[in-house]
Specification:
Chain lengths: ~210, ~190
């Protein structure tokens, strides 16, 4: 045991929470170490000073003032009853769960009714139909109807009113249909090609 | 307290009179501000009355009462710290040095009332500079004389933590008061 050990026992010694053996050892240490003895005296004096501070005086009438304020506080509580807003977290949790479920179903491609939404794939591609422009109608008569990406649905009707500004009929919903492709040595080649007689621009979309 | 819980206002007044001194003293020593302490002591008893039905019969009333008082005092310290309306350590050191010099005046043979008052003020200010979590435990132990276990219940901390906080607070206080005590001890 050294001075550090002795100083660690100061608090317990003051509180009378040390064993007899520890007290004997501390007293023998104080007999031989003036610094620790002086340190303990300062420590004890500081606590004595704290404990001997005069009691704070209470202004008269505290009980009456407290009671008056307590009556007012009881009459008008400063906080809402605990049970009232319980529906808020419940509703918020339910809403969050509903949103999460909807998003998960959409991500999985399942509608709330339990059906799979039709995915656009090669098998689902409708047969292409040739859209005939007014001046290409005569020259393109030999082109097979299943070679072009076109408008789904009515084919001839859109041109009755005038010249369209593109190959596609914008009066109906436009749907991009991908031509089937074959992979050869890592490069994609479209199986079908546009007829050169068809007027329009070819766009290549690279993924 | 059982009668207070049954809305007996006379019992409440009696209870306030019995405990107002200790509550007031705790708050005054923690805050070192008598003006504010009166309001806070009043607030402690208001809360006792408002929450009288939350008091569990069989538990110790003083523990419950001083838990409320300690919490209010801590809240007030935090509010003051936020507002930075609190004196600095440097300012305290100056005050302590001044007090120590005055107390060490060799022309004074005995401790006069004025010196005693100055010493008490200096000690009060020294307590007020101890960090809040140590200060409340120190006041509860060394001024109000509560047991460590009771303090642990009031502050909702384990007994070992109470001991370590009080030891640290005592060490801080000893260091702060050391110059004062040395000069006080000088003949």
């Amino acid at each position: 045991m050294n001075c550090g050990d002795a100083r660690r026992l100061f608090g317990a010694c003051w509180d009378d929470e040390i064993t007899l053996a520890e007290r004997d050892w501390l007293e023998s240490h104080f007999a031989s170490c003036a610094a620790c003895r002086a340190e303990y005296e300062t420590f004890a004096r500081a606590i004595e000073l704290v404990g001997s501070l005069p009691r704070a005086e209470v202004r008269p009438g505290l009980a009456e003032r407290a009671l008056a304020r307590a009556r007012r506080a009881t009459a008008a509580p400063d906080r809402l009853p605990v049970g009232t807003p319980r529906w808020i977290p419940i509703t918020a949790t339910a809403a969050l769960l509903a949103i999460a479920a909807t998003m998960t179903l959409q991500w999985m491609g399942i509608t709330p009714a339990g059906r799979m939404t039709p995915r656009t794939g090669v098998a689902a591609v409708p047969e292409p139909v040739l859209v005939r422009s007014p001046d290409a109608r005569t020259t393109a008569s030999t082109v097979p109807d299943d070679r072009l990406a076109t408008v789904r649905g009515e084919t001839d009707a859109p041109f009755a009113g005038g010249v369209p500004d593109s190959l596609f009929d914008h009066s109906a919903d436009v749907e991009f249909i991908l031509d089937p492709v074959t992979l050869r040595k890592g490069r994609a080649h479209t199986v079908l090609r546009l007829n050169p007689n068809v007027q329009g621009e070819k766009a290549v979309i690279t993924f | 307290m059982a009668r207070v819980a049954e809305d007996d206002e006379r019992a409440f007044s009696e209870l306030v009179r019995r405990f107002q001194g200790r509550v007031m003293n705790l708050i005054t020593r923690v805050l070192n501000d008598r003006e504010c302490s009166d309001d806070l002591a009043q607030e402690v008893f208001v809360r006792v009355f408002v929450h009288r039905r939350n008091y569990r019969r069989g538990s110790k009333f003083t523990t419950w009462l001083f838990t409320i008082a300690a919490n209010l005092a801590k809240n007030e310290i935090r509010r003051r710290v936020r507002k930075r309306n609190w004196f600095s350590l440097d300012a305290l050191q100056e005050i302590l040095n001044d007090s120590a010099i005055q107390l060490a005046d060799p022309t004074e043979g005995q401790e006069t009332a004025l010196q005693r008052e100055q010493l008490q003020e200096a000690v009060g200010r020294a307590i007020a500079t101890v960090p809040e979590k140590y200060r409340v435990a120190l006041v509860l132990r060394d001024i109000e004389g509560f047991a460590y276990e009771e303090i642990g219940q009031m502050l909702r901390i384990p007994g070992g933590t109470v001991r370590s906080r009080i030891n640290r607070a005592r060490g801080m206080l000893k260091r702060k008061l050391q110059p004062l005590l040395r000069r006080e001890g000088t003949p």
